[in-house]
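Reopening this ticket.

The earlier resolution said the output was attached, but the attachment link was broken on my side. Pasting everything inline this time so it's all in one place.
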Amino acid sequence: MLASEHRLKGESAFEKIRKEGKLFQGQNFGIAIINRDDGGKSRFGFVVSKKIAKSAVHRNRIKRALRESVRRNLNHFPKGIDAVILTKKSIFKKTTEEIMRELEIFARETKWK
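Inline output:
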């Protein structure tokens, strides 16, 4: 489970990142990032809309996979960022392992500047 200190909270934080963040695209998701310039712990939010999966069970499965992958790969993300992971429709057909593997590879290979 991703620790509370690494979770993004509040609708205003999500909205700010959506408007001002720099977007990095993966095959099944995008990551919008704002650098806080404080060197503190990075915080993450996850968006899986009803357009992606009608059932809450499926949306929650996707969010759990993304959260666990972020937890395992925190060292591959820059410090002091706020990030929102936005899913694409294609993620619905992926298994939990495929979702976690894709985010891990994405975090390792992306140049965050």
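Reporter confirms the inline version is readable. The longest helix spans residues 56-72. The chain has one domain: 4-109.
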